[in-house]
Amino acid sequence: MTGVPDTGDLAIHTTGLGKSFGKRRAVNNLDLAVPRGSVFGFLGPNGSGKTTTIRMLLGLSTPSSGTMSLLSQPMPAAAGQVLPKVGALVEGPAFHLFLSGRANLTRLDSADSTADRSTRTRRVDAALEKVGLGKAAKLPVHAYSLGMKQRLGIANALLRERELLVLDEPTNGLDPQGTREVRHLISALATEGTTVFVSSHLLSEIEQMCSHVAVMSVGNLVAQGTLEQLRAQGRRGVKVATPDTSVAMAVLARLGLDPHVEPVPGGEDGMVGAVLGPEATEPEHLVEGLVAAGVRVRGFTVQPASLEERFVALTGEGFDLVQ
Ligand SMILES: Nc1ncnc2c1ncn2[C@@H]1O[C@H](COP(=O)(O)OP(=O)(O)OP(=O)(O)O)[C@@H](O)[C@H]1O
């Protein structure tokens, strides 16, 4: 793909990154380029290698092959300098349910030997404010909703000034309200200039909050770039409303398309749809061909290229489109 930025501008850069578990290749030859300042969606179905990649990036697991850098410094060699600038939410920190949100963050910060004790109270309160838990700071965590717990996890990642935030499926298991809260929080953090790398199996989510996306399929990177770049690579579709579906199918097939009939409840008309490949006959010629063959064309629409179509074409599988 085009548009891969200068490596000096990259918050995350990997080349040929791979990880095997025995014979299973969980991540294969991964070249990721995450621009600084982006909200970068790491999209893929369950089991496609997202968590494995994130664990390697954060030094929680050793790669089987390849190189990686975070904030332009080699990992894991520079982990000591880099990781304090990187906040992460991976598999959520374990909270004590009977302690308050504030007490939990204080404990987690105390467990970090590199954290500055003298600024602890201020940093904990600032992080709670930032994620909108200022008012709930004194409540025990068992009284928090799932969305609040997830935001507390993000607050934990924000106990210091961070240049990069790495969030593994931060909305997993949340209801629509919790999902919205986390999404808004991520967008707010991004406007402050923090680079956010966020994994998800939900296309709709990535579409709503990310500027860039990388798509994983069975351990392989199958696309990477801005959302616009990916959308532009998608293929248009056509839909023909007609009572003569079999003839319309035959005509479109003769014109090189792979048409299908879509069910239409009630009414006489059927709907024949087809995806237009790069070499496909232009829509006006399709209409010409249909009419010449006697097909009663009662409706004809050209649908713009969509991200959804692109992802399905890239991965060969459907993504969950809505929660
Ligand atoms: N510790 C491990 N030992 C053996 N296999 C593993 C291990 N961790 C991950 N895998 C395998 O590697 C593949 C990728 O898993 P990974 O968790 O990275 O995917 P994912 O995209 O994050 O999916 P999910 O959202 O379900 O976590 C899967 O087939 C998984 O079973």
Automatic annotation (TrEMBL):
Keywords: ATP-binding, Nucleotide-binding, Transport. One of its GO terms (molecular function) is ATP binding. Pfam families: ABC_tran (PF00005). Residues 12-243 form the ABC transporter domain. Belongs to the ABC transporter superfamily. This is ABC-2 type transport system ATP-binding protein. It comes from Paeniglutamicibacter psychrophenolicus.
